[in-house]
Amino acid sequence: MTIETILQNYLTQPKLELGDRKEYAGASDVAQCPRKVVLTKTQPVEIDLPTLLRFERGNMVERIVENALSYAGVSFEKQIEVVHPEHENLIGHLDFVFFRQDEIAVLETKSVSRMPDIPHTSWIEQIHFQMGLMALNDTRKVRGAILAVDLSSGRFELFDNFLPNKALFNGLVQKALHIWQAVNGDVEPDTEEGPLCVGCAYQENCPEFVGQDVVELPIKREVEDYLALKENLKIMKAEIDGLKNFINKAVKPFGEARVGEHLIKLSSSSRTGLDTKALREAYPDIYEQFKKTSHFTRLYVK
């Protein structure tokens, strides 16, 4: 058995505390495109190993927070299931719940690869659905928070002070009911554009994009960030090249020098390459025999 198979088998095991996700509309469902949610439940596709490994970061964050809270002696309950009292197929699973005499606090954890300045809309919808379900099942005040953690950089951000919003919750309940109706084949699921459209396994033939000569993707912020970073990279490269030339000039008379705790050396090196243009002109048959074509993708953003 290969290591890939071992990892794949482990990471595809369902989370028992979440039950059978095909049997209910959950808090994470209402924060996504209804069509994607319905197709995930009715026409599931195999998830590749790199994606499964990225998903596992969320479980890792949960374990870190759980261990930290336990070590600190904080009283909490984990993965609490809350059911809508009038709709048994609308269910929320809350990462961490803190029960106090006159208050209930809900904490949702998120793993990110890039820390947002503000919580994503999907996060806000998810925490509001969770708080709303809890408020229907308990008379105590309810508040919520979202802890985002970037395991790569070590950054974290707590977005807190969320309070139940009846109008928002009612809208999310209607969305959850629509999803459940679509799962049962009673209606066609709605579509919603969003950043998660990128990489969606059900993007092909999605009504949101069918009929467009040039597809309009809902990733404006990401594209603008890319262009800004690319421009900053140009500026940084120019600054680095300038400093490199200055340091080279300063050290050149000595070969090596010390600057504080840094030792700077100049060394000469050579590289032997093949003049393909000359080879093609002098020995075209040999060139054709040994030439190699490689394929790559280039990104153009105007």
Q: Give me the CATH architecture of the largest domain, please.
A: Alpha-Beta Complex
Total tally of structural domains: 2
| CATH class value of the largest domain | Alpha Beta
Count of individual beta strands = 8
Q: What fold name stands as the CATH topology of the largest domain?
A: Lambda Exonuclease, Chain A
Order of helices and strands: HEHHHEEEHEEHHEEHH
- Average pLDDT confidence is 90
Per DSSP, the total helix count is 9
Proportion of residues in helical segments: 40-55%
Secondary-structure content class: alpha/beta
**Radius of gyration, in angstroms, nearest whole number:** 27 Å
Task: Describe, in short, the structure shown.
This protein has helices spanning 3-11, 27-30, 34-42, 49-72, 121-137, 166-183, 220-251, 276-282, 284-290; strands at 25-26, 77-83, 90-99, 103-111, 141-150, 155-162, 256-259, 262-265.
Structure description:
With 302 residues, the chain is α/β, with parallel strands linked by helices. The chain folds into two domains: 3-208, Lambda Exonuclease, Chain A (Alpha-Beta Complex), CATH 3.90.320; 219-266, no CATH class. It has nine helices and eight strands. It has helices at residues 3-11, 27-30, 34-42, 49-72, 121-137, 166-183, 220-251, 276-282, 284-290, and strands at residues 25-26, 77-83, 90-99, 103-111, 141-150, 155-162, 256-259, 262-265. The strands form two sheets. Strands 1, 2, 3, 4, 5 and 6 form a six-stranded mixed β-sheet that branches. A two-stranded antiparallel ribbon has the order 7-8. A hairpin with a 6-residue loop joins strand 2 and strand 3. The protein starts with a helix and ends in a 12-residue tail after the last helix. The model has no long low-confidence stretch (mean pLDDT 90).
